[in-house]
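Residues determine shape. We examine one folded chain.
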Amino acid sequence: MSKPSLEMGLGVNSALSAECSAVSPQVAAEIGYDLSACRALMRGGSKTFFAASLLLPPRVRAPASALYAYCRLADDAIDLGTDPFAAMATLQARLDAIYAGRPGSAEADRALCQVVHRFAIPRILLDALLEGFLWDAQGRRYETLADVQDYGARVAGAVGAMMALVMGTHSAQALARACELGVAMQLTNIARDVGEDARNGRLYLPREWLREAGVDADAWLQAPVFNSAIAQVTKQLLDAADVLYQRAEQGIAELPRDCRPAIHAARLVYAEIGHQLARNGLDSITQRTVVPRGRKLALIARATRSALIAPAGQTKALAPLPAISYLVNAAAAPLVPAPQPRRTAVWRSFDERMARLIDMHAHLIEHDRLSR
């Protein structure tokens, strides 16, 4: 299936667990949960966002790991279980306990409880995420682009909002751009995974667009093939994603300075998946699009450089994508969390950051070699 973009800023790779161990004991104690439990909960993930996650500051990387662990387990519980509705009911009950401050014995629940109360994450964001997972299990039909964006808002936009809150960003404009970045990533996921999804009986391309291109969606699902009509619809979806990637750039400028490199890297590298797909002739039926490692390195280096430059001027106010409005409204006025002790930020020179980036990619390349 076209797995949801839980990766939005979360550093999704099983190797992220190793990165959690790099968090200092002081930070771990302040966050208030056992990071070794988060390491044990990491499953699967994306090499692209493993690289981006290493640019996140420890204060964000650790709670993001807890969010990722819970989201991944919830996704698997609904999508891989025998009864998605029963799984949904169980997860809702677990959230009730988490928000009441009485999490169960599951390590993911205890970690999530610390995060949602520390960062005042509204329940509606996690409810939206679970609803999107259930839509997957139900095999929901998506007639229009707006319908697809509604799905992306739940499985990816909600994660963008949660990550913005963990980073310490509460402005409506920044939250809107974070949600839209999540939706853009999900549209890219869908375009990249058209063939894989179809072979699993799932279709996320807007059926309205398919009809306009002369494709009978249900008949095509029985025997998915690549042709010019599918290429046309795939391009339309990538164009819609690019619009949101451009909007998201404004939101990155509103993030704390130490968070910008990771999110900017995620935006650039994920958008590049769509660009690479276009260079491959828009064929995601017979092949899977992969961004070459050298290109990823160049984009991550570019993101790191750009984040060190102060944004020029005030960002333009933009109305949020309709699909994400309710998420922004819920997240823009959170409960005020308990005051936390201030820590002195450690600023690194450009040379130090680039050296860290080189070390990071040496680790990534070694991980790729060992996982083959």
Summary: Residues 32 and 180 are 30 Å apart (CA to CA).
